[in-house]
Design a protein that fits this description.
This protein has 154 residues and is an alpha+beta fold. It has a single domain, classed as Aminopeptidase. It has four helices and eight strands; from the N terminus they run ββααβββαβαββ. It has an eight-stranded mixed beta sheet with strand order 1-2-3-4-5-6-8-7, sandwiched between helices. The radius of gyration is 15 Å and the shape is globular.
Length: 154
């Protein structure tokens, strides 16, 4: 199933193993400590996770989001948009769809961690109803930085 976000002019769909090469390109261009391919392979195999991709008008993968739900809590584990796809609403479309999937699975709240310095991501999460509820000291490496823990009611 895929859904089009008219405000973003992107289509969001569930990802599969066939998307792994493209996911890794985006992952490695987005993070200083990227997840490994086997992490994504494991997440694709889990019944409690959703891996979602944002596709542009030419059906190219320009971003992805990972969310998993356990009982009534969800964790937005990762969101990334390729440099050439940024600023077009793909991140917003991905997070909105990830929250919708978590809600469909019965989650009542969703959590995430974000680099304290990532103003763009924090602003996006804020507009989607997330609030900062805590801090994880030196959660990130390369460079070392605190993470803000954010939460939203679903």
């Amino acid at each position: 199933m895929s859904r089009v976000d008219p405000a973003a002019s992107v289509r969001v769909r569930k990802l599969t193993d066939a998307d792994l090469d493209d996911i890794m390109v985006i992952e490695e261009s987005s993070f200083t400590a990227p997840w490994r391919r086997n992490t994504f392979e494991s997440l694709l195999a889990r019944r409690d996770s959703d891996l979602l991709g944002a596709l542009d008008a030419e059906d190219r993968l320009i971003g992805y989001a990972v969310v998993w739900t356990i009982v009534d809590q969800a964790e937005l584990g990762n969101v990334a948009v390729a440099p050439q796809g940024r600023g077009r609403g793909a991140g917003r479309a991905l997070v909105k769809e990830a929250l919708a999937r978590a809600r469909e699975r019965g989650a009542r709240e969703c959590f995430l961690e974000v680099r304290e310095s990532n103003e763009v991501a924090k602003a996006l999460y804020d507009t989607l109803g997330f609030t900062a509820i805590g801090r994880r000291r030196r959660y990130y490496s390369n460079p070392p930085e605190d993470a803000l823990v954010m939460r939203v009611n679903l």
